[in-house]
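Quick one, tokens below:
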């Protein structure tokens, strides 16, 4: 069993640089040490500016409540990626990874950001298979995904693996892979047999609406593959030249522990405002990004996106240890929104999905009350036209009717 690995900076995927070593003790707690030469290297940066500062001392990396290890786990798989990797390994009669280190080492390194892993600093990370073209997406691939979603023991052909393997490094529960389009990486997100509505087309429509509401979004597109929708979204953690950007999720940034019985953390740190305050010391667009985060919070409230957890917000490193808020992603209505609160805190009333709650702590976003109110009304005016926008985006009347119970621009 592998209990340690070397962590690499793969911003230049053709020249990965060893950053340090990560290991696990007997009870699963982690420890990390930057390489002595790396700390003094020009352009060296802290993998996490709060929890893994650039230092020659060994640092503890506690296992979080969900079993993750902060920024290191941002680059690794979960949910869909774990299911896909397990299927591929079983098909090749290979054992499943025995611990988080082995999961990192089994990665095809298409995960978020620029971090890579190998067993030793002299061994470069396996950057994996080359992503296929968007034209290679097919009805057969969608059928394979459907089978794998239902049965994790589904046999995969070599062609299936070539197409799906890049998605095994990605987070989230939605089936996905990585494809190339005009020299750029895109994430292709598929429907599932148990979807209540056409998720790819609804995500496409929601992102169109978000863009009109002044929210920063990547380029995106909706494909039709044999009468099935596939949502394509450009990777914002990649450069136009094929390089990779360092990525840290809000979950890693805040490193939340479990909530107290009274959930007081939803009013303080486990919240949108908590993200804004935590990122501000090293954010090169501090005020602008705080305002942008507030706008996204309001949009999520109106559109019924109650799955706005901390892993669905992130920062991108623009220069060593200087960050910006990433474009929005995973923004989509949820059928539970009519009765459920947001996943993280909104204001003084915790996660309550109301604009009154959002106004209660607008100062933490560097907004005066009249400025916050103006943002709310701008987003409300756009969201009020959601049915027309969804119809224009190809969402069916049935799905629009179904979603009308969770989208509410009067909250």
């Amino acid at each position: 069993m592998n209990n340690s690995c070397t962590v690499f900076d793969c911003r230049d995927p053709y020249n990965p640089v060893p950053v340090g070593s990560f290991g696990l003790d007997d009870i699963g707690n982690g420890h990390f040490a930057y390489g002595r030469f790396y700390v003094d290297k020009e352009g060296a940066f802290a993998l996490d500016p709060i929890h893994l500062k650039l230092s020659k001392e060994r640092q503890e990396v506690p296992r979080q409540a969900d079993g993750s290890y902060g920024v290191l786990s941002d680059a690794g798989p979960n949910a869909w990626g774990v299911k896909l990797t397990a299927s591929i390994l079983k098909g090749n009669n290979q054992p499943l990874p025995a611990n988080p280190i082995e999961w990192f080492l089994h990665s095809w390194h298409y995960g978020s950001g620029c971090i890579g892993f190998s067993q030793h600093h002299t061994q470069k990370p396996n950057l994996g298979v080359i992503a296929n073209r968007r034209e290679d997406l097919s009805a057969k691939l969608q059928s394979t995904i459907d089978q794998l979603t239902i049965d994790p023991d589904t046999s995969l052909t070599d062609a299936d693996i070539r197409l799906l393997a890049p998605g095994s490094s990605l987070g989230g529960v939605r089936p996905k892979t990585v494809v190339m389009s005009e020299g750029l990486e895109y994430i292709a997100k598929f429907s599932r047999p148990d979807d209540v509505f056409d998720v790819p087309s609804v995500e496409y429509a929601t992102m169109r609406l978000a863009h009109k509401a002044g929210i920063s979004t990547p380029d995106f597109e909706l494909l039709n593959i044999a009468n099935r929708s596939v949502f394509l979204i450009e990777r914002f953690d990649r450069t136009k030249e094929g390089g990779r950007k360092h990525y840290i999720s809000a979950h890693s940034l805040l490193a939340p522990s479990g909530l107290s019985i009274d959930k007081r953390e939803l009013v303080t740190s486990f919240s949108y405002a908590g993200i804004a305050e935590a990122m501000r010391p090293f954010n090169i667009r501090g005020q602008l990004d705080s305002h942008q985060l507030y706008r996204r919070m309001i949009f999520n409230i109106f559109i019924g996106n109650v799955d706005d957890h901390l892993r669905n917000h992130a920062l991108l490193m623009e220069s060593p240890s200087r960050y910006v808020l990433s474009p929005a992603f995973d923004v989509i209505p949820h059928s539970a929104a009519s009765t459920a609160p947001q996943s993280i805190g909104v204001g003084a009333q915790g996660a309550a999905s109301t604009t009154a709650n959002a106004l209660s702590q607008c100062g933490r976003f560097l907004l005066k009350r009249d400025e916050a109110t103006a943002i709310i009304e701008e987003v409300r005016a756009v969201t009020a036209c959601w049915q027309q926008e969804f119809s224009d985006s190809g969402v069916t009347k049935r799905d629009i009717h179904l979603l009308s119970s969770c989208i509410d621009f009067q909250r």
